[in-house]
Amino acid sequence: MSVPKAELHLHIEGTLEPELAFELADRNRVELPYADTEELRKAYQFEDLQSFLNLYYELMAVLRTERDFEDLANAYLARAAAQGVRHAEIFFDPQAHTKRGLELGTVVEGLWRALGSSEANHGVSTRLIMCFLRDDSAESAMETLRAAEPYLDRITGVGLDSAEVGHPPVKFREVYEAAAALGLRRVAHAGEEGPPAYITEALDVLGVERVDHGLRCMEDPALVERLVRERVPLTLCPLSNVRLRTVDVLAEHPLPAMLDAGLMCTVNSDDPAYFGGYAGDNFDAVRQTLGLTDERLRELARNSFLASFLEDDEELRGQYLAEVEAYEFG
Ligand code: HPA
Ligand SMILES: [Zn+2]
C-alpha cells in the first residue's frame, strides 16, 4: 500500500536480498555456504529470534566495502519509495561489522553515500540510528559510541537490538547516559521476546523516546495505561512477529487491540528481505488479515510521522502529514 508513511524500524542489514548477497559475494570473493538464491531462501524458516539472527549475521560477511553499503542502502531506498515510504529512520549494527575487521568509517561513509542523496534520488528523507548489540558487553557498546564520535553529524540516535532475553536494558545504562550527553536520540528494542518489565526499564533507565516492538506490553495492563498516557510510540513489525513466531499467525496479531487501547502504534518492516515484505507489504497484510479500516490505516501512517525524529524539520513533517490526510485509499 502506497499511503505516505515513515519507516521507523528497519535494520539496513536486514534488507540484504539473496540476489544482492550473491552479487556481493562474487564481487568480494566471499564463499557462501549456499549453492544459489533458491537454496538460501529455503534457510528463511525461523524458529525464533536467535535462529534468524544466526543467518542475519552470517550473510553480513558479503558486506566489505563502502560501495557495498551504498548499494545495500540504495536498493532498500528504491524499494521503500515504491511502497510509499517518504521518510526512513534506519538502524545499523556497527559492532556486527567492526568485529569482522571493518572500520566503522567504511560502514557510515558507505551508508551515507546513499542516504545523503536519498531525498534527491529517491524522494525519501532519512535518519541514521546506530544500534548496540545487547548480547555483546556494555564495554563494547561504550567503545562503539566513542568510535562513532567523528560521525555524529550523520547519526541521529542510538538503539539496542539482537538477542533480547537475558540482556535487560539496565545493562546499557551508562552507554545511554553517555549517548544522551552527546545529544543523541534514544530508542531500544524491548518486549519482542523479552518481558514487559524490559519495556518499563527501557523507558525509566535508558530514557528511550520510542519502544521498538513493545508487543508484550499487552501482558501488563498498567504498562499499557502508562504507554497510552505518555503517548510512547511503539514500532510494531507484524510480518516479523509471524516469521519469528512471537505471534502464531497474523490473524492473531494484537495490533487491533493495541489501537483500540489507544496505544500510539506504527507499522514497520524490521528485516524485510528475511520476513516477506517491506513497509507497504506490512500495511497490506494488516489491512487484509486484520481488517483495519481506512481511518485506522491513516492513523498508523500519521503516527509514523508524529513519532519520527523530524523535530529539526517541522516544515517537512507538516508536508508529510498533509500528504497522509489527503491520501485516498483505493
Ligand atoms: O527483530 C530484531 N530483533 C532484535 N534484533 C534484531 N536485529 C535485526 N533484527 C532484529
Ligand atoms: Zn528490529
Automatic annotation (TrEMBL):
Query: Which top EC class is given?
Result: hydrolase
Q: Which GO terms describe its biological process?
A: adenine catabolic process; hypoxanthine salvage; nucleotide metabolic process
> Mind listing the UniProt keywords for this protein, alphabetically?
Hydrolase, Metal-binding, Nucleotide metabolism, Zinc
**Among its keywords, does the record have Metal-binding?**
yes
Q: How is the cofactor bound?
A: Binds 1 zinc ion per subunit.
Q: Name one GO molecular function term.
A: zinc ion binding
Report which superkingdom the organism of origin falls in: Bacteria
Residues annotated to bind substrate: 271
InterPro entries xref list: A_deaminase_dom (IPR001365), ADE (IPR028892), Ado/ade_deaminase (IPR006330), Metal_Hydrolase (IPR032466)
**Catalytically driven reaction(s):** adenine + H2O + H(+) = hypoxanthine + NH4(+)
Q: Where is Zn(2+) bound in this sequence?
A: 9, 11, 189, 270
Which residues are named in the active-site annotation?
192
**What's the cofactor?**
Zn(2+)
The UniProt record lists the Adenosine deaminase domain at 4-315
Q: What is its EC number?
A: 3.5.4.2
SUPFAM superfamilies named in the record: Metallo-dependent hydrolases (SSF51556)
A Gene Ontology cellular-component term: cytosol
Q: Which family does it belong to?
A: Belongs to the metallo-dependent hydrolases superfamily. Adenosine and AMP deaminases family. Adenine deaminase type 2 subfamily.
State what this protein does. Catalyzes the hydrolytic deamination of adenine to hypoxanthine. Plays an important role in the purine salvage pathway and in nitrogen catabolism.
Protein known as: Adenine deaminase
Q: Which organism is it from?
A: Streptomyces regalis
